[in-house]
Amino acid sequence: MYVCICHGVCEKEVRGCIQEGARTEDAVGDACGAGTGCGNCLERIADLLEAEYGPAALTAG
Ligand code: FES
Question: How many domains does the chain have?
Answer without folding.
Answer: 1
